Fold this protein.
Amino acid sequence: MNRTERANRVLSGLRKVIARPETELSHENPYELIVAVILSAQCTDARVNMVTPTLFEAFPDARRMAEAEPEEVFPLIQSISFPNNKAKHLVAMARRVVEAYDGRIPDTVGELMTLQGVGRKTAQVVASVAFDRAALPVDTHVFRVANRIGLVHNADTPLKVEQGLKRIIPESVWGEAHHLLILHGRYTCTARAPSCDACAVSDVCRYFEETSRLPGSLDGLDPAHGKYYCKTRRRYFDQPDRQTDRYGTEQLCCPHCGSMNVFYSKTGATARKVRDFRV
Ligand code: SF4
């Protein structure tokens, strides 16, 4: 299966289980959206939605925000991460919007990226969600899910993931794909404990395929003989070597024969790892 076919299968599988592929940030207009997205950096959407009603009451548009000082914004957002910096960014963003765009949030990725606190991901979210522009923002969830499933290969930066996804997903569904992958990552393919058993796309997921192939635990190992056990040589050892496997993941290996068929003698669990792309 090539990556385009895999992407088609993933999107059609996720459409069946995600009824509303849209942002979970509460907003009524582009100004409220850009504020919410700036606040959501390294913070949950749920937490952002708790502070924005009061914030928008106090500063209902870019002009009112531009007249404020960061010290006035700070108390209203102090329960979210990095409130100091975000208060400064919000005020500076609004001032630039007033000065350069007559108080209206610009609608292109390039213009949006000239605003304080607005990087490539934020600009693309606003352009896509508020203005229906073709964009495919990559956040931590999209990054992890795209790599785990195998929609991209060895893409180690958000930009590489974005470029890889854009090559295999039709432009007409970039916005939808962004939301499907985010929501899948947020609720099913979570960073620490992906729910592979309940996943609608496990049949086309590379990570699932690789973890399914890992050997089961060995019984009867004796840690008194050494921390590790090489099943190939059937001998214990304490100091493993390391090798990179064909997927690019560094694995422990036997210092005597180089085999990666290594187990922890205390638990009997395999020492083999599958890269899971947590960031
Ligand atoms: S099978 Fe597991 S790792 Fe793969 S997409 Fe589903 S939840 Fe994520």
User: Anything to note?
Assistant: The mean pLDDT is 95. The beta strands are 228-230, 235-237, 241-244, 250-253, 262-264. Residues 148-149, 188-189, 194-196, 199, 201-202, 205, 207-208 surround iron/sulfur cluster (CB under 6 Å).
